[in-house]
User: Fold these one by one.
Assistant:
Number 1:
Amino acid sequence: MRDRSLLVEERAAKGGLRLGYATLSNPASLNAISLETAELLDEALSAWAEDPDIACVVLSGSGEKAFCAGGDLRKIYQAIRSGDSSFPSRFFTQEYRVVGKIHAYPKPILCWGDGIVYGGGLGLLAGASHRVVTEKSRFAMPEIAIGLFPDVGGSWFLGRMPGRIGLFLALTGLSFTAGDALFLKLADYFLPTEERKSVLDERLGNLVWTGNAGADRLLLSRSLREWARPWLGTVSPARTRLEFDRIQSLTDGDILPEVADKIASGPVSIDPWFAQGAENFAEGCPLSACLIWELSRRTVRMSLKEVLRQETIVAYWCGARADFPEGIRARLMDKDGNPRWSDKNIATVSIEKVEEHFAAPWAPEEHPLRDL
C-alpha cells in the first residue's frame, strides 16, 4: 500500500456479508490526514459503495490519543516552502470530496470518534451516519490559530448548532467534550473507550446484516442504542448547553468588531474556559476571524454541497496567501507561538481583502467539486 497512514481491510460478518474497515493509522501525527490518505479513503469508500456484499463501513483511528487531529499541516507547509503552490488546493479539494462522500454515503458508516477529533477529523466524524464518542473525546475547530477557517463542511455544521454556538466555537477555537458533541448533534452515541474492541471487533460482525441499506442503518442504530444504554448516566454535562445564554450574549452583534469586543471583555476573570477563548481569539489570525464571520453570513441558507464548494474557493486563496503557512510555522514548525499575521487586528482587514477570498479562481464549469 502506498500510504500506510490508512489501513483498509474487509472482515466477514454474519449472513455472508462483509464490513469495510478504514483506519487512520499514523498515531505519531495523531492520525493527521495527508493527501494520499484522503485519496485512498476516497477510493475505498467508492469501491465499498458499489460492492453489494459490503453492509457497513467502520471509520476509526489507531492508537489511544486521537481519531484524527485534522489535516497533515506539516506536509502542506513543506509543499508550500518547496515551491508547490498548488498543493494546498489539491489537498483541500480531495479532503472536501471525501467529506461530501461520507455525508451522502448510501450505506451506514460507523465512526468511532475517540481521543482528539480536531479540524478535518471533526469533518469526517460529522458526516458519518452513526457517530460514537467516548469519555476521552476532545473536539475543536481551531483553524483561527493557523490562518485558516473551520472548513471540511465546518461552515455548514457550525451554522446549524443551537443559537450562535458554532460562531463562538469558530472564533475562539475552544475545545469541547462528548456531552457537547451529543448536544450539538455532532455525535449520536456515547460508549466508553474500553468498549471499542468489543464493539468494532466482535459485536458488529455478529449482527445479522441484510445488505439493504435502510434496514442495516436501522439495525446499527438499534444495536448502538442498546450498547450505549448502560452508560447514559456517565456522559459529562455539555458545557455549551450550560453556558448557552452567556455564549448568545457574547456573540450578539451586527458586525464582527462588536462581537470581538464582547469576547475580549467577557467573563474572563471568573471562568478559565472563556478566558482561554478570549486569548485564542486575540492571538488568532485577524483575516481568519473576518472569513469566519463572512462565511457564517453567506452559508446560512446553503446546502452542504454548496458550502463545500464555497469553502474550496476560500481555502484556495488561504493556501495561496501568507497567513496560512505563517500560522503553521508559528504553531507547529518553529513553535515560537508568535505568528506574524498580515493584518494587525480585525479593524485593519479591508473589505476588499475579504471579498477576494470569495472570488472563484475558476469558471463555474471548472470548479473542482462541480460533480460533488
Number 2:
Amino acid sequence: MQDTQLSIWTRAGGDAVKMGALYVTDIDARFSYTSEYPDYALPGLSLVYAPDLFRDSTIVHHLSGSLHPRFRALIPPADEQNFQRKLMLAFLREKGIEPASPFDADLALLAHTGHGGIGHVDVFADDASAEAWYANTDSGPLVPIGEQFGFSLKDMISWLDADARFILESLGPTPSVGGAIPKLLVAIPEDGWDGRISLPNKTRSTRIDVVLKIERTQAYPGLAALEAMALDLHQEAGFSVPRYWHAEVGGLPALAVERFDRDPRCVPVPLESLYAILAAGAKDIVRHTDGTLDRIAKVIDLAEPLLVNDRKAARVHLYKRVLLALLTGNGDLHLENLSLIGVAGEAQFSPVYDPTPMRAYSMHNMLCAVPFGGYGEDAGEGDALLHACANFAASLSLAKSDVEDIVSELLALTKNYPERVDAIDSLPGENKARLIEIHRDIHQRLTALI
C-alpha cells in the first residue's frame, strides 16, 4: 500500500480547527497534534491522548491490517452485510477509487466519509477538503422520506461530500434497503417525527438530530418496539435515556433516537466507547468483545490521566447496567455499547443506547457479549452466575449493601417484564416465549444476591 496522510479536525470549540495529522504506512499509523492545538484547551483525539501530554510526541499504533479503534469508529465496519459500507464503497467506485484490500478501503472511507459522524473527531483527505466541508452549513429542506426510501440514503452521501451528487444517478430512484440494519444520521422537525427528514445539522437549528434505525423485519421482527420498551425500562431504572419517536420508513418499522453527542448549539460533544479507550493501552483488545467488563474499573480508577470524576457513580452505573442487561435479555452489551461522554476529568457514562434485548433472537442468544467476574472460570460450587456477579462487584469496589440495593431495585422494576414483552404485538410468539423464559430464569437466580 502507499503511505497515506489524513487531516484531523474538530468543531468541539464551536469553530472548526485542525487537530492534527494521521500518517499511515503498511506497518504503523502515527498521529501528531499540530503545534498550536494544545494551546486551544480543546478535547483531544481521545480521553487517553490529552493534547498537553502529547504536545511534543507522536501517538503510534502498530498495525496488523487495521486502524486504531478511535478511527475505526468513524467508518462502517468491514462486514459484507453492512448496508452503509456497501453504499460508501459504491460512492468510492463512482469517484474512480478501487481499494485493493479491506484495509485500503478503510483508509479511503476514512478520508472521504470520516466526518460528521458521532462524536467530535472529523477526518478528511486534506485541509482543503475540511475547509470546504465546514463552509457548507446548509442542511437543506425537510423532505418526506416516502416509501421509495430514496432521499436519506442519497443525500446523506451528499452531506458527507459535496462532490457526491453523482450518487443520485448511480443509486437510481429506489435504492435497496438490504444488508444490515441502516442507522442513518438525519434531522427531524422540532416537534418530532412526522415523516420528514433533512440532512444533519452543522449549526444551531430547531431541528432534532437523530439516529434513524430501520428494522429488518424478516431477520429481526419486533426489533424497533423492543428497543423502545428497553429504553423506557432503563429510564424508569434511573438511567439517562435519549428521547425517541416511533417511525415508519418504506413500510418498515423504525425508531428515531435523539443524538446526545451535540449540545444545544449543535457543537459536537466528545463521546468515546470503552472499546476505543481500553484498546489504546491494551494490545489484547482487538475486537469490541475482547477482554472483560471488569477491566473498565481500571479506566474508572485512572489517576493520570484522570478521566472520571465521580468514580462511585460510575461503578454503580456499570454494575446496574450489566445486571439490567441480564434481566432483560440484552446479551449484546459489548465494549462499543458502553461509552464515556465529556472531557477528561469530567467524563461520565453516556446516556443509554442500543439496549435492545437481542436474546429474543436465537442467533444472538448469549448471556453477555463480554465476560465479567470470571464467569465460566470459577470451578467452585453453586451458581456460576452468582459467583460472577459477586466477583464483578468486588472488581468495582462495591460493598455488599450496594449490591443488595441495586439488585432489589432491579428485581422490583422488572417484576412485570413478561407482561411488557407479551404486549409487543410486532414480536412473534416464539421470540416472546424465549425472552420471557430467559428473564424468569435470571430473575429467580439473582434473588439469591439479596
Number 3:
Amino acid sequence: MKQKTLKRMACLGILVLLTGSLSGCAEAEAPTVTIKSENVADEYNMVEVDYGDVLLEQQVSCLYSQVTEENLSFSIEQRELTHVYVNDGDSVKAGQAVAKLNVDELEKKVRDNEDVIEQSELLISETQKLIDYYEGLLNNGPDLKKREDIEFKISDARQEVDKYENEKKVAERENEEFGKIIEQSVLYAGMDGTVSSINKALIGTRPSKGVTVMKIINTDHCSFISRDEEAFEYLNIGDSVKIYISQEQFYNATVIEKDAEGGRVIMDLDEPDYSIKMSTRGTIDIELERADNVLSLPREAVHTTDDMAYVYTLTENGVRELKEIEVGIMGTKMVEIKSGLMPYEQVILRKGKING
C-alpha cells in the first residue's frame, strides 16, 4: 500500500514539473495535491478477542445393538474344523454343541484303550485267582520239589499281573490326555441366544487358537455400544451423553457399563424408544479438554507453524500486520489465547487465501 502511495506521489511530481516547463516564465497557480492513506479494512472480515469457553471434542461412533454377546473359539489348534451343527439365525441353548474339530483318530484310540483296560482288568482278576490258588497249595505243606515249582508259578503269575497293570495304566493315562483334547474339540454355546454369524471360511481348515468361529447374541436387551478407544478412555459409568443420529435427531443416554475385555462402552437411553432399529448408527462428541471463561478466538483466526502461533491485525492505516501470540487449548471451534492480545482487540478472520 505504501508502494502505491509513493508511485502516485512520483507521478504527480513529474506532472507538476512538466506543467511548469510548458508555461515558461509565466506565473501559474501551484497545483494542490491531496494524499490519502489507502485503507483496506473493508476487504477483511474482523473478529473480536472475547471471553468464552474453549472445548476440545472428539467424535466417536456407536451402534445400537444387543448388549450380551459371546464370541466362540477353540482353545486348541492343529485340528481341522469338520462339523458345524448350526446355521446363521438359529436359536441355541446354553451348553448346546455348535461345532467340532476332527479328532476321529483320538476317539478310535480311546475306544481301543478302553478295550485294553477292560481286558487287563479281566486278566489281572484271573491271574490273581491263580496266585491265590497256588498260595493255598503252599499252605498245605508240599514237599520241597513241589514247593519250588509252586513258588516259581506264583512268581510268574505276579509278573503277569504287573504287566497287565502297566498296560492298564498306560491306556488310562492316554485316555485322560486324549479325553481333554476331545473335550476341547467341541464348541458349546455359553448362553441362550441366536447365532448371529459363522466364519464359514474356517470350515475345512485348522483354525488358530482363539480365532472366532461364530458369534452368539442375546437380543433381549439392546443399547448403544461404542468400541472406539477414545470412548473407552474418556467415558465413565454414570456419564451423560448425547447420541446424534442426524443433525436434527439425538438421544440422551447414560453410560451403564465399560467392558474392558471387549473394549466396549455401553449406553442406555434415558427414555426408551422402541422404534429404534438394530444397527442404527450414531455419533457422540466426547469432551477431551476444556477451559472456561478465557480469552479466545475462532480457530479460523489463528495461524500456527511448528514454532509459533500468530494472528493478523490491521494498523490504523489499514495495513495488515502479523502478531505473534501464545495459545493454550486448541479447541474444536475456539482457541484459548494466553498472551499477545488484549480483550476486545480485533483480528482478521481467515477468509480463504489472505490477500497479500
Number 4:
Amino acid sequence: MSKSRIGRSLLLGLALTALLTLPAAAQQSEKPAAPQITAIKAGKLVDPETGKTAANQIILVEGRTIKAIGEKVAIPAGAKVVDLSKSTVLPGLFDAHTHLCMSVQPKRDANNYYITTLLDTTAYRAIEGVANGQAMLASGFTTVRDIGNAGNYADTDLRRAIEAGVVQGPTVVNSGIIIAPYGGQFHLQPEKKDLATPEYLFADTRDEMRKAVRQNIHFGAKFIKIVVDDQDYIYSVDDIRYLVGEAHASGLKLAAHCWTHAGAHNAAEAGVDSIEHGFQMTDDDLQLAKKNNVTLVGTEFSEKMTRALGNPWDHKTWVDRLRRAYKIGVNMAFGTDVDAEMPGETRGTLAIDYINSWVEAGVPAADTLRAMTINAARLLGVDKERGALKPGMAADIIATPENPLDDIQTLRKVAFVMKDGAIVKQ
C-alpha cells in the first residue's frame, strides 16, 4: 500500500473515531426550518365552484398549502401579512391547451409552425418553455396543460425543472409527443419522410398505437394527445376507443385534436376525455359529447389571434360554436392554443385575451370562471389539490382589482400571484 493511501486510511479512521465520540445531540442533523406562514387579508374571496363571494376573509398559508380560511382566523405572531383588503382574491387560473415550448415567429415562419419545428431545436424550445411559462404565471395562470409540439420531450423537462424548483413556472400537465395517423398535421414529401419527427408519433396499427402511448408514458407524459383528422384518412371510433383504453389502463386521460365535424363526431362517440378545438361540431356532435361526459376545450380564438395568424376560419365561427355548446350544456374548460409571438404581447396577455370570445358568446362570468378553474382542474386530474381555495389545497392564489363575477375583464389586471405558497407577483 502506498504512503498516500495509508495516510488517507488513517485520516478516515480518525474522522470516524471523532464522529463516534461526539455527544448524541451533536450527531443529529439540524432540524429543518419551520415553513413560512403568510396571512392574506382578502377584501373579497371568490369561490368559482359556487359562484359566491365572501367578504373580509383571512387566508392562512403555511409552506406550500392553505392552512385555514375564514373571517376570524387568528394571524400567528411572526406571520408575513399581505394586505389585499381592497382586492378580490381567487384561485389561480388554468389554460388547458397550451404550447409553451413552441413560439411561431410570423415573419420568419410565415405563420407555418412546420417551419418553426424545422428551425428550432428541442433545447431552444425548452428555454422558450421557461420564458412562456413565466409569462403565463405573471398573468395569473398557475396551472397549464401543455399539449404537444414540444420537440423531443422538452415539455417533460420543463415540468421536471419547475417541480424541482430549478425554474419558476406554472404547474404543468404535459402530453409528450402527439400521436397521429401517418403524417401527423404535416404534409410531407417522399424524399424527406422524417421531417415530422420528433414532432409526431405516427400510429396506424394497434401495435403502433400501444407503443406510442407507452413511449409517451415512459418519457414522462401525464396526458395523452392524439390528432384525429388532419389527413384525408382519420381515426375511426374503434381506433380512438383503443387509444383511450390504452391511456386509461395506465391512469392517464386522453385529449383528441378534432378539426372537422367527422373527427369530432368520432371522438365524442368514442368517449375521449376532451375534444380540442371542435369548431365544426354540429349540435348533434355537441349533444353526443355531453351524453358521453366529454369535456370541450374549444380554444375559441380571439379576434386578435385570428387576424395575426391569418386563420382561414372566421372568428365568428368559433364564437358561434361556443355559444351553441354552452346552450346545450357541454362541460367546458378554458384553453387557448396560443403558440405565436406578437409585438407588445406576452404568452400570458395573449391567453387572457380569449375571455373576449366567451363574452361575445354570452357565457356568464361565473361559468367562464368555472371553465378557467374548477372545470379545468377536474379535466387535468389535479382538482384534489388545485382549482379552489380550501384548507389542505395548494396555495395557488391570485388577486384582481374588481370581482370577476361582476366583470370578467378584471382578469386582465392580475396584480398578485402566489404559486405553491411563494409570492411571484405583488
